[in-house]
Design goal:
Blueprint lengths: L6 H7 L17 H8 L4 H9 L3 H9 L6 H12 L3
Helix pairs in contact: 2-5, 3-4
Length: 84
């Protein structure tokens, strides 16, 4: 097991280093709102087809229960930048 000497850090700053802990989750997920604007009809079905996953999984992505995979985020980006 490796140990670290934090003595120089305390001596240089006068304060012990802070443990930041695990990263916090984003509370305001906006993917569902954006997806509903991009694909207003059958949003969950469209997203499920893009990712080749089940309809229920897509509903969970839309609700913010789980994060959508990169393939779905990339499809949303392509749809946003597509020429009309």
């Amino acid at each position: 097991m490796r140990t670290f000497d934090i003595g120089p850090v305390i001596r240089a700053t006068g304060n012990p280093p802070q443990d930041s802990g695990p990263p916090t989750k984003l509370s305001g997920r906006k993917f569902g709102s954006v997806a509903k604007v991009l694909w207003p009809v059958n949003t969950a079905k469209t997203i499920a087809t893009i990712a080749n996953r089940s309809h229920r999984t897509a509903e969970r992505w839309l609700s913010g229960e789980f994060e959508a995979p990169a393939i779905v985020l990339a499809a949303a980006l392509v749809e946003m930048t597509r020429e009309q």
